Amino acid sequence: MDRRAFIATTIGLLAMPRGARVQSADRVPKVVLVTFTPATRDALIAGLEELGYQEGRNVALDWRRRSSGDAPPDLEDLVRIKPDCLVLAGPNNLAAGRKLGTTIPIIAIDLESDPVLSGLAASLARPGGNVTGIFLDLPDLAGKQIQLLREAVPTLTRLAVLFDQRWGSAQLRAAHIAAQATGVSLDPIAVRTAPDLDHAIARAMKSRPQALLVLTGPFFFPNLGRIAKSAQRHHLPSASIFPAMAEAGGLLGYGPNQGELFRQAAKYVDRILKGARPADLPIERPSRFQLAINLKTAKALGLTIPPSLLQRADQVIE
Q1: What CATH superfamily classification does 141-255+290-317 receive?
Q2: Domains of the chain: which residue ranges?
Q3: How confident is the model at residue 16 (pLDDT cuts 50, 70, 90)?
Q4: Which residue of 209, 265, 288, 313 has the fewest C-beta atoms within 10 A of its own C-beta?
Q5: CATH superfamily, with its number, for domain 3-136+258-280
Q6: Taking the model in full, what pTM does it have?
Q7: pLDDT digits over 20-54, tens only?
Q8: Whether 269 contacts 85, CB under 8 Å
Q9: Cβ-contact 128, 279 below 8 angstroms
Q10: In 3D, which of 279, 3, 235, 295 has the Cα closest to residue 130?
Q11: What is residue 308's three-state secondary structure?
């Protein structure tokens, strides 16, 4: 190669995006997703397809499914396969991903943590490390659940609350404040592992609650159906931050749609594969909240949902 050809080639390489420089022309970038349900995997794939990606052609998705969120996953093998980025759902998966070092870009979907207070990011606008993504960090949303439950159950004065003992303390404090303001007494039931769910609602019934509130936690979402069925057996109206709670048989859910969060995460994947650094990608919060109500469950519980509440619902299950 002569001198002018060498200079032209070097300039061309330097002009390429950072992510493109580290990948050979025939290498398909690898994205590893660690989450709980096929629905969240499919939502990420749909989001990537909207951006022009086709699995196996210009992106490879390695899905690590976990049946529950009560134990940190073992992700050590990811260092060997050298993924271009990780998409990690929940604080346990995120904590495991961070143990792999600071070189692998991480996109988090975390509904429990404050990314700045926990040291994950220097700021929301400029995280500064290898972690970015979507964080809810709105413990006051628990107060909204109580408000909605009181509209659906006007006689509500005693409320059982399931919370994750490791991640739900801020939400529980917000729920206490909201309950005190409305004259509702709370009976918190701490849950640490998924098997605890089998006995948690039975323990809650000792205080004779009139409804059940489920706060966020890594193993609550994949077990919404199990929780809703148990609540129905005890004739308890149930609510959660997950709209999918109503689909699973609970009375209502209000919060961000899980599918939308994973489609939103696909945009982060796209930018990182094109050379952006997580340190420079602002952390986002869910921008849209949905209210879902299950009228079939309401009828089984002998409840009449006020028209004013139904009119605000994004989804009504009949």
Answers
A1: Response regulator (3.40.50.2300)
A2: 3-136+258-280, 141-255+290-317
A3: very low
A4: 288
A5: Response regulator (3.40.50.2300)
A6: 0.84
A7: 334 445 689 999 999 888 889 999 999 999 999 99
A8: yes
A9: yes
A10: 279
A11: helix
Q: Tell me which residue of 108, 64, 111 sits closest to 219, measured CA to CA.
A: 111
- Three-class HEC string of 136-161: CCCCCHHHHHHHHHHHHCCCCCEEEE
Tokens for 281, please give them: 């990608």
Topology agreement, domain 3-136+258-280 and domain 141-255+290-317: yes
Rounded alpha-carbon distances, angstroms, from residue 91 to 111, 114, 272, 287: 8, 10, 21, 20
For residue 96, the tally of other CB atoms under 10 A from its CB is 20
What letter does residue 29 receive in the DSSP assignment? P
First-residue to last-residue Cα distance in the chain: 72
Strands 252-255 and 238-240: parallel
Instruction: Please say whether the dihedral angle defined by the alpha carbons of residues 157, 158, 162 and 168, taken in this order, is positive or negative.
Output: positive
